[in-house]
Write a structure and sequence with these properties.
This protein is an alpha/beta fold. Helix content is 40%, strand content 21%. The longest helix is centred in the middle third of the chain and has 15 residues. The protein binds calcium ion (CA). Calcium ion binds next to loops. The site of calcium ion has 5 residues, from loops.
Length: 237
């Protein structure tokens, strides 16, 4: 555990990386800067930063490749930096496992709020109110103590945000949870309007737990309202 969290800024625009470095230092973080994607991966491997701020348009290796590489190996929080007009970039990055995004230009207050919120989500989830230690629904099983999720006996690796989302759905099995409810409970009240973050994370969760993610049997849509985790018969397996 570091005294000051170490943040990695990946940004090729000097003006932006300077601004980020000085703002973040002022907010009490230690800062590393990479100007391209290759350097970013080196710094991730060598320093294991506590969070990465990742520009998507980078020389040598673009931000999407960096994201894909890091996600394959680490659970670190990642906030992508996107240009105002790049709505598609934002959605793509979220689907690839980014935790959040900041649209340029952004102020120090917004920067700080997003960092705090994302780091909070990476802390272990609060113990559940239920006394059960095991959740079982059809082939889906959650061991609350070890946070191990299995589907039909196969262990599934979830990011902390995906795990939190699944827990919220599981604790309310068969109940429809609104977009607003899920965003507030999993991400925080300041995210209650960010439906595309929710949609992208549901998409990722389905890729991991559903046999056919386009025809889900666990996480069902309630169009215009939210999502529901459907109850299935217990299996003896
Ligand atoms: Ca750039």
């Amino acid at each position: 555990m570091r005294a000051r969290p170490l943040l990695l800024v990946v940004e090729d625009e000097i003006r932006v990386s300077r601004y980020l470095r000085s703002s973040l230092q002022m907010l009490g973080y230690d800062v590393l800067v990479a100007e391209d994607g290759v350097k970013a991966l080196e710094l991730v491997q060598g320093n294991m930063p506590d969070l990465m701020l990742l520009d998507l348009r980078l020389p040598r290796m673009n931000g999407f490749e960096v994201l894909e590489n890091v996600r394959r190996q680490f659970d670190m929080p990642i906030i992508v930096l996107t240009a105002n007009a790049a709505e598609d970039d934002k959605v793509k990055a979220l689907m690839m496992g980014a935790d959040d995004y900041l649209t340029k230009p952004f102020g120090t207050r917004e920067l700080q709020a997003r960092i705090v919120a994302v780091m909070r989500r990476y802390r272990p989830a609060e113990p559940t109110a239920t006394r059960e230690t095991m959740y079982q629904n059809g082939g889906l099983r959650i061991d609350y103590a070890t946070r191990l999720v299995t589907v039909d006996g196969n262990a599934i690796h979830l990011t902390p945000t995906e795990y939190r989302l699944l827990l919220n759905l599981a604790e309310n099995t068969n109940r429809v949870l609104t977009h607003d409810y899920l965003l507030s409970h999993v991400w925080g009240v300041e995210y209650s309007e960010d439906v595309h973050i929710l949609r992208a994370t549901i998409w990722r969760l389905r890729q991991k737990i559903e046999k056919d993610p386009t025809n889900p049997i666990y996480i069902l849509n309630e169009p215009g309202i939210g999502y529901r985790l459907a109850q299935h018969e217990e299996t003896t397996a």
